[in-house]
Design brief:
mainly alpha
């Protein structure tokens, strides 16, 4: 169960770093941009080819759009947390409960297609892990560095981190009970979620629309990492075909 371990550790590591380096918003932003480059490449090189070459049906594009729309709805709960909108530090208009629900659903759905993964270190899994790190970093920074940083605050915060860490493994567990033929549909939904998040991070306008060479560089590094993995990853289909 290396998969479950990786999923949980990525969240714990991110939250730990967020707790201790949470004031460094630039670091979190850069991690997000790097992961967005990685994610969009995984999406276009791994997830979508898998979706569109499956024999399942011709209307899978609708599920991709569904994933995009679902993520837009979830962002009403998380207030754009996934792409590093942390201007809610001092405000209380972002309820940890709403945030927790939004992030949990997001991570839970991402976990479902992992049930039919044959490779322990598949690009899809590493895409989620890469994506978990910056989100957990922001989550840790948000939860553990709030002004009312009393001890009473730390227990609910730890609970939120624990729930987020367990969301994808729980999705994966549920995925075992679905017919493997549904795999392309779940992948299509997650592909839409990945596409929306990564493109928002990459295309969010820079201040004054100047060229941000660091951002471009980080996206290229993220893309390159995903491409290297793509080349070294043996390409047998993701799902079991019965």
């Amino acid at each position: 169960m290396i998969t479950v371990l990786l999923l949980i550790l990525s969240v714990i590591a991110g939250a730990f770093l967020g707790k201790h380096f949470g004031k460094k918003e630039k670091l979190a932003k850069n991690l997000l941009i790097l992961s967005a480059g990685f994610l969009i490449t995984i999406c276009l090189n791994e997830v979508f080819p898998e979706v569109y070459t499956s024999e399942t049906g011709s209307n899978l594009g609708i599920f991709v759009i569904g994933g995009v729309l679902l993520q837009m709805i979830l962002e009403a709960l998380t207030k754009g947390f996934e792409h590093g909108h942390f201007h809610h530090h001092s405000e209380h208009n972002i309820l940890p409960v709403a945030l927790m629900v939004g992030l949990f659903i997001h991570a839970f759905i991402e976990g479902i297609p992992l049930a039919n993964e044959e490779h322990e270190f598949s690009p899809y899994l590493l895409g989620i892990v890469f994506h978990n790190l910056p989100i957990s970093f922001i989550l840790g920074a948000f939860l553990f560095n709030r002004k009312e940083g009393s001890k009473s605050n730390s227990y609910p915060s730890l609970l939120i981190v624990a729930l987020f860490a367990l969301a994808s493994p729980m999705g994966m567990l549920l995925g075992n009970y679905f017919n493997p033929d549904l795999q392309p549909y779940f992948l299509a939904i997650v592909g839409g979620i990945f596409l929306h998040i990564s493109s928002v991070i990459i295309f969010e306008s820079n201040k004054n629309h100047n060229i941000d060479w660091i951002k471009i560089g980080l996206v290229i590094v993220g893309v390159s990492l995903a491409l290297i993995m793509h080349l070294f990853h043996s390409h047998s289909p993701m799902g079991h075909h019965h």
